[in-house]
Amino acid sequence: MRSLLLILIFGFPGWAGAQSVVNYQLQIATPVSANLEPKLPDLSGYTESAIRQQLAQWHDKPGQISEERLIGKVETRKFFSSGRIIEWSRRQGQFPRIIMLRNGLVTLPQLAKALPASVVKLGPHRYLARLPMAIGLHAALLVERGESLLLSEDRGSFLINAGHFYLLHGELLGWREQSHGPALYTGDKSHIRPFYTAWSDSRTYMYGSTIAHLGASSSKAYGVTLSSYTEADELFAPLGVPRDKHPQGWFIGNRFEDLFYGFYCYEANDVVIIRNEYANNIYYGIDPHDRSKRLIIAENQVWGSKTRHGIIISREVDDSFIFRNLVHDNRKSGIMLDRLSNHNVVAQNVSYSNGGDGIVLYESHDNLLWANQVYQNQHHGIRFRNSRDVRMLDNLVVDNGRYGIYGHLRDLRDDGRDTKLDPYEQRASAMIQGGLISQNQSGAIFVDQPEYFRMQDLLFQEPTLRASKPSLNGALAQYQPQILRALRQHGVQVSLQSAAVAQGGH
């Protein structure tokens, strides 16, 4: 093993933000070989046929339909508490009522026949729900091929699922009766539009359909939401409601447009989101949140998010796969991992022309970024903040508006962060193996105050690789000549590491 060891002294913030001084070591050596390429999930089983096999269990179980008072039900508690009942009273012009589905399968023609004033048949396959609707724990609703379910904004309609919902080659649309057209977003984020929310132990299947014009900036009413019941809901839940069982769903080959959030979930597990188009949604395209696990987000096109990011997972969304997505032209970043979202794989995505970073990790650890193409984003190509053990393998990072790779620490106390809910440490570490970094406007790599930063088999094609304007900045700047010489040799790893970490301490 060949090894070159250089030591410099830097002023370096400690892990809690206090200033201290540590030694940095630059080591150039033969690396320990390891295959970092992940095994991606097999998508072949997520088919319409598989969904229809699930649906088959309901065919000999006709459901019950009734119209009841909105209050007093765990499925709707979130939407009549805290004064919300006044809003539904105003829209319905009466004490609010809801359509309840129980104990079996219900179709749209059956709904229109049972309650013709509340589910109005507008055409051969077009139905307008003029009241909210709730699918009970032991019930299912089917919107079949060619059918449209319109949810009346004027009358305060929405759809709650505590059982099973099947939308197969159909439409689920927010509808504005006054203008005889879709409930388009008006710019008032607090204005309540129709929405879809599925609760604990529910199943949602949307395949080959259009879902549009839903949601507002209102908790659990963002557009399409999967959420576990909260502890407060348990007080209202009848015996047998499985609060501890997480909602699940398959979303395959759909188009989601003009939703406040294209997708949101809270404590949902094993959700599959593949081959959809998320277009022109208001805040986020895809936003899994709080303690959701084992998600598959693959082969989607996510573009035109008007306020924030294309795909974001946030607050302990772990053990998930984000791969082969096309993410572009979103207002902020393309793909983000946030707030302790750990042990995830971000692979083979194309993220370009976004208004922020291409791929960004905030306070999230032990994540793998593999074979992504990240280019022409207005800010950095790949950015990580207060994130440890970030592994970047065979990525192409080209022509971004700032740095290709940007890693840094930040004290977030001035941002008003609740450090009990969202704890973090000012620590960062990463490695890059393989790939190309080229033509990024500020330079190739900036990394500030890492515990370690390793590089090998990395190709640069930068216009600024010269001593007068180094393309390696931050902690790497003083080592640029040695690093560049070493990286031209195959099978050599360059490692910048704090002496304290090298010795096994902080």
Folded structure, characterized:
By secondary structure, the chain is mainly beta. The protein is 8% helix and 40% strand. The protein contains 6 helices and 46 strands. The longest helix is centred in the N-terminal third of the chain and has 9 residues, at 84-92.
SSE blueprint and pairings:
Layout lengths: L3 E10 L5 E11 L18 H8 L8 E6 L14 H9 L4 E6 L1 E4 H7 L4 E5 L2 E4 L3 E3 L3 E5 L4 E5 L6 E3 L2 E5 L2 E6 L4 E2 L13 E3 L4 E5 L2 E3 L10 E5 L3 H4 L13 E5 L2 E3 L3 E6 L5 E3 L2 E3 L4 E6 L6 E3 L2 E3 L7 E4 L6 E3 L2 E3 L6 E4 L6 E3 L2 E3 L6 E4 L5 E3 L2 E3 L6 E4 L4 E4 L2 E3 L4 E6 L20 E5 L2 E3 L4 E5 L4 E5 L2 E3 L10 E3 L5 H8 L5 E6 H4 L4
Parallel strand pairs: 4-8, 5-9, 7-10, 8-11, 9-12, 10-13, 11-15, 12-16, 13-17, 15-18, 16-19, 17-20, 18-21, 19-22, 20-23, 21-24, 22-25, 23-26, 25-28, 26-29, 27-30, 28-31, 29-32, 30-33, 31-34, 32-35, 33-36, 34-37, 35-38, 36-39, 37-40, 38-41, 39-42, 40-43, 41-44, 42-45
Antiparallel strand pairs: 1-2, 2-46, 3-4, 6-7, 13-14, 43-46
